[in-house]
Every structure is written in structure tokens, then in C-alpha cells.
Design a protein that fits this description.
Largest sheet of chain B: none
Radius of gyration of chain B: 22 Å
Oligomer: heterodimer
Order of helices and strands of chain A: HHEHEEHEEHEEHHEHEE
Helix content of chain A: 10-25%
Number of strands of chain B: 1
Strand order of the largest sheet of chain A: 8-1-10-9
Strand content of chain A: 15-25%
Largest interface: A-B, 58 and 59 residues
Strand content of chain B: under 5%
């Protein structure tokens, strides 16, 4: 990893710790991504997710997400399947968040242009302009948006844009225990994200959620079981928020 | 439902378009439908339709003036509506709605004033405490057919655009297969007209003389709407079952396993059949037919909006919705209904809606 590359995962960060210690006096810009136009994206290695929900909690703490609302969550499923003639039970974890689509269905429906895609690919909501009509909530095919009960406006994952702008990783990436979330710049050929995507692309291992919807997500998955790629056919969640008002 | 996958942890997204939205779509639909029923007498001057058109004008005004209040309430902070005009995103159907609603309501109020001017003058001529106010309001009391037609065209354009945008706004949400069907705007419109006929029948019983349906072929029109409701519903089902349209098949597959949805479908079809039967065979039970038609119009919107949002886009099974008793639920429904009744009482008390019969009374 080069010095001028954002640390795309917690593991990479830890590996580079000595370099950080040595170069602590360097200006903040050294931690920023490569020069030029960024295109932020995330790669989720489902095989490494242990379902600890550390990302869920850190996101809530970082972004003051109200009770019973989530910008990201690790959907967890108990899966029974036959392996070598025997029924086995396993757990499948799928981190979900806003996909920061290149063709975001939430943007054109917004009646006041409050939700938009930044030049660096991050889809955000202008809280001053948002009227809380929830049209974007309906339009998102990933159920990634919700009405924040504290602000009564649309809310969603921002890739922790405030942290990224300051040269930091999103909170969920920072805290991921298994190093399952890799964040970085698609335009940075030397970055871990780009290298991992290019390496996995050859093996056709990269998937996105609901590819048929034409949204062109910027959250990619390795190890995504096709049964979980769209709406999951299974028994409903056992736990649900208990009140409308949160 | 596959027994091999059980969702253990996932987010359950709450309903984001609240019962306020149901109330808005219901009331604005009734207003548009009622406005159309005013045209046969006030514009086309078909005598048999006078009673229907006069009662329908009451309904169009009461529903039209109440509907935007429900819409504003759904914004959580009504003052936010200003952003619709300060920062319109004209690629959004909802943004256009902010312009279509005032166009329609402005046209409707102008039209109502023009058609009632002669009656306002008659009321003024009859004397009384408010004669002066009525005389000023009548502004000469002319029966200006030309002006009425212009206002009618304006209101009709507004009504058509409101019907179009309310349908398209929901139809374009491709994230919800149940909404993503060209049948939806048609269903909204037909049930709105049916509901408006139902409203006229109910108002005719309680504030009219009960003879509106005797002269105009109102019940035949109601029967026709129910035939259309059943036909469109059957077409939707056919496209889903046959697989001719993968989108409709997907929508059907989402709701078909649910007992609640099965009951809803039978309920909707049964209500349409009963309304049809009453309208054709039992005109004396027109009040019941009207009430059922009104209920069907509301139920259709409740099912589409609240039921539609109970279908997870990514998760398994269905979200569970419990109607809150506060302003985000029951209080919103009751409050809107209360406002509607208040506006209706005000209109009945102030306007010479019944024409000469009222003026002579």
C-alpha cells in the first residue's frame, strides 16, 4: 500500500501501522486517496463477515442513528441445506447498506432535488432541503432508506462522507472485525479495492444486489449466495422494531 | 416461503407513506370523480343530472379542500411544502403534483363560484341577514355559460393532471412490483369515479332529497365502474398467472402466499360484485351500494399503500404493520374525516348548493 492511498480495510490499516507511527508528522493529505476524481465504493467479502454487528453499532454511534433505525445492518439467516446427503444448518451473514448506485432510483423521484449523487459517487441527502415526503424511501430497491424520527427527514448510509472527506474510513469499515468491508476509490488502480475487484473479476466472483434492477450499485460482494441477491425467499425476521415512532 | 431459510436478524422498515397518504389519495380521487359528475348539469345542462351535479359539486369541494391538508400532514412539518416551489425537481411526478393540485383546486373553486352565481343572487334577493354579502359574492349573479365552460376546461385539465400524476407517481416506483404496473393509474381513476358516485348517493340520502339516482342513470354508471374494476383486476391477475408479464408475475408471487392478501383480494372482488348487484338489481338499496363503493375506493388505496409497504424489498416474509393510535395513524384518519365533515357542514350552510329548491325553501 502506498503512503498516499487511503487505508481500505482495517487489516490493511493494521498492517500499515508501523508506517503510520513513523510518518505521524506528515500532513493529513498523505492519507487521502490518489489525486484526481474519486469514485468511492465498497467491497464486502461475505466470507469474512462473522455477523458481530460491530459495523451496525459503530454506524449508529458515528451517525447518531435513532433507535430502531439502521443505516447498515448485517442480515443474518439460518440456512438448512443438504450437503453430501446430510442436512446441515449454517448461518449466513449479509451486510446491507446503501448501494450508492451509479443509477440511483432515489435521486430522480425526489421532488425537491434534496437527494443527489456527489461527484465522488456518494449518494447523499441535503437535510436542509428534504421535505420528508419519503418518495426516495419507496424508490430505493434495497430498503436502504428510512425516515429519521428525530429529523423527520430521509436518512441513509452516506459512506460516512464526513469521515471520508477528512481522509478517514467509514465507521463500519473501521470497526469490521473480520475485515469484510473494504472501502476505497474505484479510480485508484493501486488501491486495495480496485486490485481486489480486478482480481476477483477474473474469477467472476464479484456480485451486486439486484443486478436486474439496473441500478449499477457501488457496493460489491464476494461470496454472495444467489439466494440472497434479491428478495430472500424464506421465513420472516423474528425480531422487528416495536413501535412506529422509534 | 422456503422452510430452508429463516431470517434471524434483519431490519424491519416502517411504513413511510402513512395513512395520511391514503387519506390524500382517497379524497383527491373523490374530488376529481365528483367534479366529473358536476359537468352533465352545470356545463352540458342535462336536466336529469341537476340533482347529481349539485350534490357532486359539494363533494368535489369538500374533498378537494380537505385533501391537501392530509398531504401536508404527511410531510411531518407542513411548512416544508414551500420547498416544492423553491426547488422543484421537474423529473419527479411528485414535484409536478405541487403545481397540478393548485391548478385543479383553483379551477374547481372558480368553476364552483361561476356555476353558483345565479343561485347566490337568488339567495341575496330572498333577503335576510347575509343578503348583502351574498349580493357582493354573486357579483351580478350572471349565468355566464362561456365563463363556466372556460373554468370547467381549466378544472378539467387540472383534474386530468391530478389523476395522471397521482397514478404515475406510484406506478413509476419500480422497486415495488405491486405498484409498478400501468393498471394502477387506471384502477385509481375507476375506483375514484366509483367512490364519487358512492359519495353522491350517500350525500343524496343525508343532505339531498334522495332522488338523485331516480332521474340520472347514476346506478348504471356505478355498475359500469364495477364491471371495469373487475375487468382490470382480472387482466392484472391474468398477466400475473400466465407469466406474460414477468413484472406482474413477480408482484403476484409476492402477495399470493399471504392469507391476508388472499382475503383482501376476495374482499375487493366481492365488494365490486355486491356493488354491481345492488346497482343493477336493487336501486332501492342505493345507499348501501354507495357506501360499499366508497369503502372499496378507500380499501383499494389502503391496500396499495399500506399493504404494499408491508412487502420487504430485500428481506423475507412480510413486515408487520400495526395502526398507531396517534397522529401517524388512527388520529390522522379520524382527523381528516372530521375536517371533511366540518368543511362539508360549512359548505352546506353557506352555499346555495341545491339551487332554486334551497332558495325557495
Amino acid at each position: 500500500m502506498s503512503d498516499d492511498t487511503l487505508f481500505q480495510s482495517r487489516r490493511a490499516f493494521l498492517q500499515a501501522l508501523p508506517a503510520i507511527t513513523a510518518g505521524v508528522a506528515l500532513p493529513m493529505s498523505t492519507a487521502r486517496a490518489a489525486e484526481g476524481k474519486h469514485h468511492w465504493a465498497m467491497l464486502v467479502d461475505v466470507r469474512k463477515c462473522i455477523g458481530c454487528q460491530a459495523c451496525t453499532v459503530s454506524c449508529i454511534m458515528e451517525n447518531a442513528v435513532p433507535e430502531n433505525s439502521f443505516r447498515t445492518i448485517v442480515s443474518t439467516y439460518a440456512v438448512q441445506q443438504e450437503v453430501d446427503g446430510q442436512m446441515t444448518a449454517s448461518t449466513y451473514m449479509l451486510p446491507r447498506l446503501c448501494n450508492h448506485c451509479d443509477n440511483p432510483p432515489c435521486v430522480p423521484v425526489c421532488p425537491v432535488g434534496a437527494t443527489f449523487k456527489r461527484d465522488d459517487g456518494i449518494v447523499v441527502v441535503d437535510g436542509d432541503r428534504c421535505v420528508g415526503c419519503a418518495y426516495c424511501v419507496q424508490a430505493c430497491p434495497y430498503d436502504a432508506r428510512f425516515i429519521n424520527h428525530d429529523t423527520n427527514k430521509a436518512d441513509k448510509c452516506t459512506f460516512c462522507a464526513h469521515r471520508v472527506d477528512a481522509g478517514l474510513l467509514p465507521a463500519c469499515v473501521e470497526t469490521c472485525v473480520g475485515g469484510a468491508r473494504i472501502f476505497g476509490d474505484l479510480n485508484d488502480p493501486q488501491g486495495e479495492l480496485r486490485r481486489r475487484l480486478d482480481a476477483a473479476k477474473n474469477a467472476d466472483a464479484i456480485k451486486v444486489l439486484k443486478p436486474e434492477s439496473g441500478t449499477r450499485p457501488n457496493v460489491f460482494y464476494i461470496g454472495l449466495d444467489p439466494r440472497f441477491q434479491g428478495r430472500v425467499e424464506g421465513q420472516a425476521a423474528m425480531w422487528q422494531p416495536n413501535a412506529h415512532g422509534g | 416461503m422456503s422452510p430452508s431459510i429463516v431470517e434471524v436478524v434483519n431490519v424491519s422498515r416502517e411504513v413511510a407513506w402513512l395513512p395520511w397518504a391514503v387519506q390524500y389519495f382517497f379524497l383527491i380521487g373523490l374530488s376529481v370523480g365528483s367534479f366529473l359528475l358536476t359537468l352533465p348539469w352545470f356545463v352540458l345542462r342535462w336536466p336529469a343530472w341537476e340533482r347529481v351535479s349539485r350534490i357532486a359539486l359539494l363533494g368535489a369541494l369538500a374533498c378537494g379542500l380537505t385533501a391537501p391538508v392530509a398531504l401536508l400532514a404527511d410531510l411531518h412539518q407542513p411548512g416544508r411544502f414551500l420547498n416544492f416551489y423553491l426547488h422543484p425537481n421537474l423529473g419527479s411526478w411528485m414535484a409536478w403534483g405541487a403545481f397540478f393540485i393548485p391548478l385543479y383546486l383553483g379551477g374547481l373553486v372558480l368553476y364552483a363560484w361561476l356555476v353558483l352565481r345565479p343561485d347566490l343572487k337568488r339567495l341575496a334577493d330572498a333577503g335576510g341577514r347575509w343578503a348583502g354579502a351574498y349580493r357582493a359574492f354573486a357579483y351580478g349573479g350572471h349565468d355566464s355559460v362561456g365563463a363556466i365552460r372556460i373554468a370547467a376546461v381549466l378544472a378539467l385539465a387540472g383534474a386530468a393532471l391530478v389523476a395522471l400524476y397521482t397514478g404515475m407517481e406510484v406506478m413509476v416506483v419500480s422497486a415495488r412490483p405491486l405498484w409498478d404496473t400501468p393498471f394502477l393509474p387506471v384502477q385509481f381513476f375507476i375506483t375514484a369515479v366509483a367512490g364519487a358516485i358512492g359519495l353522491v348517493l350517500v350525500l343524496d340520502r343525508f343532505v339531498g332529497d334522495g332522488r338523485a339516482a331516480a332521474e340520472a342513470p347514476l346506478l348504471r354508471l356505478l355498475a359500469a365502474t364495477q364491471v371495469l374494476v373487475l375487468a382490470v383486476g382480472a387482466a392484472w391477475l391474468l398477466l400475473g398467472i400466465s407469466g406474460l408479464s414477468p413484472r406482474h408475475a413477480e408482484a403476484l408471487a409476492q402477495v399470493a402466499p399471504s392469507a391476508a392478501w388472499q382475503i383482501t383480494a376476495v374482499w375487493a372482488a366481492g365488494s365490486a360484485l355486491v356493488t354491481l348487484w345492488l346497482a343493477v338489481r336493487h336501486p332501492e338499496w342505493r345507499l348501501a351500494a354507495g357506501l360499499i363503493a366508497l369503502h372499496s375506493a378507500w380499501m383499494m388505496r389502503w391496500t396499495v399503500f399500506i399493504g404494499g409497504q408491508e412487502i420487504p424489498k430485500t428481506g423475507a416474509g412480510y413486515y408487520v404493520y400495526h395502526l398507531p393510535l396517534g397522529h401517524e395513524g388512527m388520529l390522522g384518519i379520524v382527523g381528516t374525516a372530521g375536517l371533511w365533515i366540518a368543511v362539508l357542514i360549512l359548505l352546506i350552510s353557506v352555499l346555495p348548493w341545491a339551487g332554486q329548491r334551497r332558495a325557495q325553501a
